[in-house]
Amino acid sequence: MIKTQLAKIKSSALARNAGWMFAGQGLSFVVQGLYFVILARVLGSLQYGILAGAAALVTVVSQYSTMGSGLLFLRYVSPDHEKFREYWGNILLSTAVFGSILVIGVRFAGTWMIGPASASILVLLAIGDCMCGQLTAAAGQVFQTFEKMRITASLNLMTNLFRLILAAGMLIFLHHASAWQWAVASLTVSLLAVITAIVTVTVRFGWPIFRPVLMLKRLGEGSIFAVSGSTTSVYNDIDKVMLGHYGMTIANGIYTMAYRVVNIAAMPIMSIQAAAFPRFFREGVKGVTATEPFARKILKRTALIGALGAAGMFLFAPIIPHLVGKGFSQSVNALRWLCLIPLFRCMHVGAGDAMAGAGYQKYRLGAQAIAAGGNFLLNLYLIPRYSWFGAAVASLLTDGSLAIMSWSLLFWLKSREARKHDGKSEGDLLTRPVGEPENAELLP
Question: Are 324 and 36 in contact (CB under 8 A)?
Answer without folding.
Answer: yes
